[in-house]
Design brief:
Elements (H helix, E strand, L loop, with lengths): L1 E4 L3 E6 L2 E6 L6 H10 L3 E3 L2 H10 L5 E6 L3 E5 L5 E6 L3 H6 L1 H14 L19 E6 L10 E4 L25 E2 L4 E6 L7 E2 L5 E2 L16 E6 L2 E6 L3 E6 L2 E5 L1 E4 L10 E3 L2 E4 L8 E4 L3 E3 L5 E2 L3 E4 L4 E3 L3 E2 L5 E4 L3 E7 L2 E4 L2 E9 L2 E9 L5 E3 L2 E13 L7 E5 L4 H33 L7 H36 L5 E8 L3 E5 L2 E4 L4 E5 L1 E2 L2 E2 L2
Parallel strand pairs: 18-20, 19-21, 20-22, 21-24, 22-25, 23-26, 24-27, 25-28, 26-28, 27-29, 28-30, 29-31, 30-31, 30-32, 31-33, 32-33, 33-34, 33-35, 34-36
Antiparallel strand pairs: 1-2, 2-3, 3-5, 4-5, 6-7, 7-8, 9-11, 10-16, 11-15, 12-13, 14-15, 16-17, 35-38, 36-37, 39-40
Length: 523
Amino acid sequence: MIIIENDEIMLSTENGRVFMTIKNDHYNLKKVDELSRNHPRLKISNFLAVKKAVESGSHDPIELGIWIDSMELEVSSDKMEALLTIYESPKFIQDNIENLQMNLQKLLQDNQIVYGHQPLDLSTIKTGKSYIIAKGLSPQKGTDAKISYLQQAEKTPVINEDGKADYFDMKFLVEINEGSWLGEKIPAQQGVAGKNILGEPVPALMGDDFPLKYDTKSAYEVEEEGKTVLRSKTKGVIGEVNGLLTVQKHLVIDGDVGLETGNLKFDGSIQVRGTVMPGYSIVSSGDISIESNEGVHSAELIKSTEGDVFIKGGIFGRGVTKVEAHHNIFVKHANECTLEAKDSIHIGFYSLGATIFCDHLVLDERKGKIIGGKVIAINSITSAYTGNNSERKTELIVQGIDRKILTENAKTKAQEMMKLQEETTKLNFNLSQLNQFKSSMTVQQVAMYEQTKQKYNEIQREIKELDEEIQRILKMLRQTSGYFIQITREANPGTIIQIGSKSSYLTTQTKGKFKLENGELNV
């Protein structure tokens, strides 16, 4: 079929292939480009042959390219959309709208597109541009699973305006009975089905599902009224370990820790409704709550290896009491004692002659007092008053962090953890192999099995400690706020303000937010 013929060229097509015969020796490559623009259906693929024919003056037919269809329909892989492209010239489109419309309908029919037809004004379309001609109805996603948990006690200080009530009269522990509700999951819901352009149904999308995060040793799931309910396997106190809800063992001492109880060491949380007598100690893996209004008098050691410490009535340490917490310490007042926490220490009323180590030290900004002693914090110290009229020496030190050293420390610990994880993988494999023959083991083999199991558990504890330390370092590195010491009412003479290596001994009364400005202390 001849497409075009004049004094210069003849253009013909056969089985979709386009042939060109040059009749005039003056025909040039510029006219080939013009020919392509005037005939959008012509796709030149053999330009070098044309160039050679023009340069040599050959009048033999050459294969120029292909003659594409007048219109092209592209269906998406998911059958949810069809795109129409028309390759005719603008003039041809305007002169043949009705024919093109009929061809379009036949094209849709041939491709079995029966749903979601989109209106298209052929008189406004542009040559070679794709237009949406059919669009399916997308399925709707169902609602995601909804998870709720029993809230843990809010461990934040509550200070009354009159200053006479207990400064830390808060519920530090949430006690749980066996079978208690700990949380629940409303399952994800099915969405609404859609339809593709072929008229076929598209399945509805299910909402996202999320697991309940809990310690399987202390809690279990049960289906109740279409919901997955989380219940406690045992009596204890609610807690969280490595992001998992857990019910920890809970030891309640109705009276004092003293002659009748002896020193306490417990894997879980301890609640003392009395006090800790002079010379006695408590060491616990979980939270420690000492609820006597009289506070703690000359106890030796109160230590939580994984949790917080709450002392409702304060501490009269007489230079011997030490309190340590893996996270936070909450205490009404601190007299002549040592407090050490990896996170924050909250003191409701005053610190007198105490030695304190923490990340943040927080006293009430209206009434809190730090008199004597030494505070070493990483990030900040906040109080209303420091020192006294007698100019008692009171050291307030904010160390800040060395980011380079901390980063290297985190990398080193991460490498140690990876080595331990590799070792636990091997031990776990050995245990699984040995476990198959446990019933037929000799006494020596059972002993070896138990030793391997003990080593595995010990390494798991080491990994947990390393991971917690890495997370603590990363948290410190993420902190962007500047280091500061804030005294809102009176910083008395005798107070030493130190941030990093810069320090100042106050000789006059002042107040404010002290920090480094341009490398110098703004005291």
